[in-house]
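Tutorial handout. Part one gives the primary structure; part two gives the three-dimensional structure as tokens.
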Amino acid sequence: MSVANIHPTAIVAEGAAIAASATIGPYATVGAQVVLGEGVQVGAHAVLDGITHLAEGVQILPFASVGLPPQDLKYKGEPTRVEIGPRTIVREHATVHRGSVGGEGLTRIGADCLIMCVAHVGHDCVLEDRVILANNVMLGGHVYIGDTVFVGGGTAVHQSVRIGRQAVIGGMSGVERDVIPFGSCMGNRARLIGLNLLGLKRRGFGREAINALRAAYRGLFLGRGTFDARVALVAQDHGNQPQVAEILAFIEASSRRGLMRAGRQTHESEAEAA
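Part two.
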């Protein structure tokens, strides 16, 4: 560890493993079980504690806290963890709590994520790569978010909710149920309003894939009959298309919160995207 990269006012506990190229700013606090990879930047007054591993290039900005105990009254100091993947940025005043014994004991954030100011990642959450949480987003414990999801500012996500990859959540939403991959939802309480069509186009999904997803969405959420019957029909008609198969697998997977269904804005959203 290079003393030149650590501000003299920072408090670094004996035992912390800090790469030579990592930097620690003024008045930051780094606990004894923290591991900082190459190029990690820790801003002024940030707090890193517990068994916390930051991969190369992670940035922790001023006053953020990572690895503090979970907000779980059952937690009694067990050795749970936080892992943050390469190049992820945790902005000012954001909080990332370590796992609990009621979960897997791990809070994990993937690579190239952006956790904006004052966002909260609760215990045992899993965020895959390229997830963006805008300002003041609140994730309850045990939330799962797939890759390349955007969550708008001020949104609250209930504990144990799953959000499938490439979904988009509108700002100021209250998300109580699982959101399908590629879905778009908003509102208090949030309801599906269609697909994340803009995101799909920006990320290079072709016309064939988008058309199949739109047909599947209409069949699942705007069709007639029971939901199970609609799932079976979509599987029959479009189940060979990879993204549709992903949605069907998401629906069939175990869920503690249940699946979010479409709201009244769906018809308008789909019409505008046509």
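Part three, for discussion. The chain has a mean pLDDT of 95. Helices lie at 197-202, 207-222, 227-238, 242-252, 266-273.
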